[in-house]
Write a structure and sequence with these properties.
Chain lengths: 390, 414
């Protein structure tokens, strides 16, 4: 349908670059949205071809934040990669840490004490709340509210991030998990504060939903926009809330039953239409489930060590072998593949980034929608460029 | 009410002008008379614009759980004591902003149409200022009392959208171009609803002169219920429609599509910097103020006081008070609502606002025809008129939202 019509040399072709054969449609407009664009959530670029305002072609371009993460990890010891995993998904360092620790523990066969297991669940769920609250706020920003919902979401995020800081010393780059346990034991005051925060969190969600979920403009902008077919999603390897919004029941917390998740009572919300509104609602409902998990966890958190006493951090050399550790990150299946040859460094270190893989179907979701929708669809997929580009 | 019975404050601005004018020789009098009016409008609304920006930023800040600008105070050498300098609530922010805008580099893209790129911000301010000429700011305080004042207002006001197209086209930027197309689509869609929402007022008042429309809304029932158009069924819905159309006309959220920040970076402003950028903002606020002023004039009784014991407060104070109220409302909307998509924007105009405005026109005609009904018939008149408002509103509103609504979700069973 589209044929290239290069402009004559030395003559600016102006805004129109390509021509459609059909004279009724006129020219197409190619716009390179990003890497400097307010709504591409970092240095992401979308090369869109527009017919009027409707997208006829979209090419996601990434790599602007490539940092050689995997190669660097192969050249350092297992432990020194831990702070580096914080920088993958910099909104959710606690669960990224856990995914990496889980992979290494699988490789070396280390056991994790009960208290550490509970702490991991607590921190991972708090991270999920942080991530989803941010995502919902940014989604509304993409939808054109001048920052109001975002800043209220950030108010809640700030409280949780303060807790992370009190526990690990850092707000976002927590570097908290270790192979065989956790780094610091939370004080009773910390636990009380966290428990109180979690108990108050549903009030924020209720307020948020009362103000926004039923808004007619939100319904008009998101319902039926950016539909994703479940078959297509499964084939493309989409995971996380984006997959569940299409109605596919796949949550690693239930499927793999890793950590102490089987001990908790929680439900997995499923969407029906797979559109942007479903993706938004998945996040809201998952936050409610996370609150349930957290409330249970604070009740049963046992006393005891937080590190396996036999765990060896320095001079750590796992036996040769390979492993794949994965967990249900806030954005989807976050996995670490490790291949050990018995040396202090992994021979091969590979990350399965949910953000990148969820992004692969962006064009399918955006075709036939307008530029304004593309921005919203991208926002609803939830990407972090630190993880997409590594 | 004759001018002589007015209070001193009421008469003061007019008399000061007349005194100044009569000092000059006769050939200059007409010219000076208008020059003073223009100067007064520029000074008052220039300052009003400056403080609207602070008010907007501070109000939005409060809506968003933050403080807004609160750092800029008076310079160090001022005679004020220290604690006062730091308690100016950031009120000097607009002046700091103006200095910043003036000292910034003015960048014109190499591929831009230089003349149009320069003309657009100048014209946009000029056109938006023209509309102030027919607004009655107080009793006897309408700068130019045109017989067709309303027509003039809309003619001057809609020209601003053309300058947006000019800016978008001249910038040679794809985002600007998209914004320009959006601006055109918006002006075509919303000029009609804006006019149609105003026509009932003209029909009932029987005049296009803004001054006479205000005069027609004078008087009170029982001394506390003013005869403003908003307190009639057709006036109420007309005011709502006017508000929506006005929001779209001044490109304010939720209709800020031409400068949609999250989609088109800054829309038609993408390639503007420095003072030209500031001029666009100035024009936007002037447009907002003028349309708010028109709303006040047409529906909120203009400079009329709300109760019969309150006219001792000068009429221009009432006008400004109502104007501020309207602008605060617009800021509140901006801090609350999401942005529509361009197709939804036009659909809202053609499928909801235009039919509603047409029905409202019939409603106003009915209201004008039945003005002589008395006794229990008055209740019938009110009932029919209310039914003509509520019925179409609900029916058309339902039609707009077919197939959409809140959903319930299932949970995985295993």
């Amino acid at each position: 349908m589209i044929t290239a019509a290069p402009a004559p040399f030395g003559q600016s072709s102006g805004p129109t670059v390509r021509r459609v054969n059909d004279p009724l449609h006129g020219d197409l407009l190619e716009v390179s949205m990003g890497p400097q664009h307010p709504s591409t959530h970092g240095v992401f670029r979308m090369d869109v071809t527009l017919d009027g305002e409707v997208i006829v072609k979209l090419k996601p371009v990434f790599g602007y934040l490539h940092r050689n993460h995997e190669k660097i990890a192969e050249n350092t010891s297992y432990l020194s990669s831990m702070p580096y995993t914080d920088r993958l998904d910099y909104l959710c360092s606690m669960s990224t840490n856990w995914a990496y620790a889980m992979a290494v523990e699988k490789l070396s066969g280390q056991a994790v004490p009960d208290r550490a297991q509970y702490l991991r669940v607590i921190l991972a769920e708090l991270t999920r709340i942080v991530n989803h609250a941010c995502l919902v706020g940014f989604l509304f920003n993409d939808l054109g509210t001048s920052f109001t919902p975002l800043l209220y979401a950030f108010r809640e995020r700030e409280k949780i991030i303060d807790l992370f800081e009190a526990l690990s010393g850092s707000r976002m780059m927590c570097n908290y998990q270790r192979f065989g346990g956790c780094r610091v034991d939370p004080t009773p005051e910390w636990l009380a504060a966290a428990s109180k925060l979690v108990d108050n969190f549903p009030r924020f969600l209720d307020e948020y939903e009362t103000m926004l979920t039923g808004n007619e403009i939100l319904l008009a902008r998101t319902q039926g926009v950016g539909r994703l077919d479940p078959k297509h999603a499964v084939n493309a390897g989409i995971t996380g809330p984006v997959l569940r919004a299409c109605g596919v029941n796949y949550d690693l917390r239930k499927v793999d039953a890793y950590g102490f998740y089987p001990r908790f009572d929680f439900r997995v919300p499923l969407g029906e239409h797979g559109d942007t509104y479903d993706r938004y609602m998945m996040r809201i409902l998952e936050m409610r489930e996370s609150v349930k998990i957290l409330q249970q966890a604070f009740k049963v958190l046992p006393a005891g060590p937080i590190m396996d006493p036999k765990a060896k951090l320095r001079g750590f050399r796992p036996k040769p072998g390979e492993t794949y550790g994965r967990l249900e990150g806030p954005k989807g299946e976050l996995g670490f593949y490790l291949l050990s040859d018995g040396t202090p460094n992994p021979y091969r270190y590979r990350v399965r980034p949910p953000s990148l893989i969820n992004l692969t179907l962006l064009e399918e979701m955006c075709l036939g929608h307008t530029v304004a929708d593309a921005v919203v669809i991208l926002g609803s997929i939830d990407i972090v460029l630190g993880e997409v580009d590594r | 009410m004759s001018a002589s019975t007015d209070s001193f404050l009421e008469r003061a601005p007019i008399e000061a002008r007349d005194w100044l004018v009569q000092l000059l020789p006769a050939p200059l009098q007409w010219f000076t008379h208008h020059l003073i009016t223009i100067g007064a409008i520029l000074a008052v609304f220039g300052l009003f614009f400056a403080f609207t920006t602070v008010a907007e930023r501070k109000l939005l800040g409060r809506l968003q759980n933050r403080l807004g600008p609160n750092r800029s105070g008076l310079p160090k050498f001022s005679a004020l004591p220290w604690h006062l300098k730091h308690k100016l609530f950031g009120l000097t922010q607009p002046f700091a902003d103006a200095v910043k805008a003036l000292t910034k580099e003015d960048i014109v893209p190499a591929a831009a149409d230089k003349l149009l790129h320069f003309l657009a911000p100048v014209l946009v301010v000029a056109f938006s200022l023209l509309t102030f000429a027919v607004l009655p700011f107080g009793r006897n305080m309408v700068p130019v009392d045109l017989d067709a004042g309303l027509l003039y207002f809309f003619a001057a006001g809609s020209a601003t959208e053309l300058t947006i197209f000019m800016a978008g086209w001249a910038s040679r930027n794809k985002y600007s171009l998209l914004a320009a197309m959006r601006a055109l689509a918006q002006v075509i869609s919303y000029e009609l609803p804006l006019l149609l929402s105003v026509v009932p007022v003209v029909l009932v008042a029987g005049t296009l002169s803004t001054n006479e429309i205000v005069t027609a809304q004078g008087g009170w029932s029982f001394g506390i219920l003013p005869h403003w158009n908003i307190f009639t069924p057709w006036g109420f819905i007309g005011f709502l429609l006017f508000l929506v159309a006005a929001l779209a006309e001044c490109n304010r959220s939720p209709f800020d599509l031409p400068e949609a920040e999250s989609e088109l970076i800054a829309g038609h402003l993408t390639e503007y910097s420095g003072f030209k950028y500031a001029l666009f903002f100035m024009a936007e606020y002037f447009g907002l103020t003028a349309l708010s002023g028109l709303g006040v004039t047409l529906f909120l009784g203009g400079w009329q006081a709300p109760c019969d014991f309150l006219p001792f407060i000068p009429s221009y104070v009432w006008f400004m008070g109502k104007l501020v109220m309207m602008i605060v409302f617009f800021i509140w909307v901006r801090g609350t609502l999401l942005r529509l998509r361009i197709d939804q924007l036009t659909r809202l105009a053609w499928q909801f606002i235009v039919p509603l405005a047409l029905i409202n026109l019939g409603n106003a005609a009915f209201w004008a025809l039945t003005a002589s009904w008395a006794g229990p018939l008055q209740l019938v008149r009110l009932g029919v008129s209310l039914a003509l408002v509520v019925g179409p509103f609900i029916l058309l509103g339902r039609r707009l939202n077919i197939g959409r609504g809140p959903r319930t979700y299932r949970y995985a069973t295993s």
